[in-house]
């Protein structure tokens, strides 16, 4: 990884992913998390303030050392035990059926093999365990999709492999999850190409 992707992008994400509606969306997506949680693409820990009291531990999976460092103050302030337990969502160093819940916020866009990451989450979640997600991806409207396909190569270069065109709900169902709650919308105040969000929960079989 080059200097830009390693040092600059995590700092941009730390600021950009805290803007606008993000806080409210984090609050919504974290509602109902309980017990032992695995969070993939933990970033700089922007979800930490929204973990409910019912969460007993969070195992964070994050490749970026800079992201983890930026999480320092939030980690120090939370009563929840959070440990950096893995580096790659595509290959989780955890036993099968160990977690009650999983969390992924704006991460499936960036993991190179997101299908592998979803298979891994399914493997490590207990049967009936719930994945909480808010992800941007392929827009519901054809006119926005056309721009997403055009801009996707640039987006990947500017944001360390972030894709605009991933069909989030299809990916979840292909991985074997049952989507139980879903809200699809454009985030206010952001370009629609970047802001076609799917927020909800999906249950592992
Ligand atoms: C757009 S950021 C979102 C960060 C955080 N989830 C948030 O909501 O602020 C995408 C995150 O995915 C992480 N990531 C990239 N490749 C990954 C992988 N293979 N496994 C897990 N996380 C990965 C990046 O380092 C980055 O922190």
From TrEMBL:
Under CDD domains, the record lists: AdoMet_MTases
- InterPro entries the record matches: Methyltransf_11, SAM-dependent_MTases_sf, Thiol_S-MT
Ranges for domain Methyltransferase type: 38-132
> Which GO biological process categories is it annotated with?
methylation
Q: Which domain of life is it from?
A: Bacteria
Q: Does the keyword Membrane apply?
A: no
Instruction: State what protein this is by name.
Output: Methyltransferase family protein
